[in-house]
């Protein structure tokens, strides 16, 4: 099954071409790319950017960045394949190592994936 998903994140329109034989997997991917987190706790609903970074071990992290308050909603990956969004924007506060993460779904990514210098 082939699906084209168009998603606008901030000022940029992304076109995702999904080619996946398994129809359910194709639709799952389409739902992830087509439904990026779009409401931040700060009230922002349209000023976002797709952001990513790579740590020293080569792990890649993808986030939706709220350009109003710098909070991020992370993309997670299931152990058995596929992706999902943490539909909650989290703001990392300097000098505070405690990150409020109450309902973390199963993910391979470590919770503390960003080096914010604290
Ligand atoms: Zn925000």
Describe the structure.
The longest helix has 12 residues, at 23-34. This protein has one helix and six strands, in the order ββαββββ. The protein has one domain. Strands 3-4-5-6 form a four-stranded antiparallel β-sheet. With 118 residues, the chain is mainly beta. The model has no long low-confidence stretch (mean pLDDT 85). Strand 1 and strand 2 (12-19) form a beta hairpin. It binds zinc ion. Residues 40, 42, 44, 66, 68-69, 71, 89 line the site of zinc ion.
Q: Are any ligands bound, and if so which?
A: zinc ion
* Sequence stretches where pLDDT stays below 50 over 5 or more residues: none
Number of separate domains: 1
DSSP summary, beta strand count: 6
Describe the strand arrangement of the main beta sheet, using strand numbers: 3-4-5-6
Percent in helix: 10-25%
What letter string, H or E per element, gives the SSE order? Answer: EEHEEEE
Number of helices: 1
Keywords:
1 helix, 4-stranded antiparallel sheet, mainly beta, binds zinc ion, 118 residues, 6 strands, two-stranded antiparallel ribbon
What is this entry, summarized?
It contains 1 helix and 6 strands; from the N terminus they run ββαββββ.
Helices and strands in order:
Blueprint: E1 2-9, E2 12-19, H1 23-34, E3 48-54, E4 60-66, E5 72-77, E6 83-85
Antiparallel strand pairs: 1-2, 3-4, 4-5, 5-6
């Amino acid at each position: 099954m082939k699906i084209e998903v168009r998603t606008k994140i901030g000022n940029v329109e992304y076109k995702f071409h999904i080619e996946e034989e398994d129809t359910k997997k194709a639709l799952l991917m389409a739902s992830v790319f087509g439904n990026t987190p779009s409401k931040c706790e700060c009230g922002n609903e349209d000023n976002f950017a797709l952001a990513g970074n790579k740590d020293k071990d080569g792990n890649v992290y993808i986030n939706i960045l709220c350009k109003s308050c710098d909070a991020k909603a992370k993309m997670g990956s299931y152990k058995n394949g596929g992706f999902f969004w943490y539909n909650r924007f989290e703001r990392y506060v300097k000098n505070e190592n405690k990150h409020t993460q109450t309902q973390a779904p199963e993910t391979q990514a470590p919770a503390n994936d960003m080096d914010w210098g604290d």
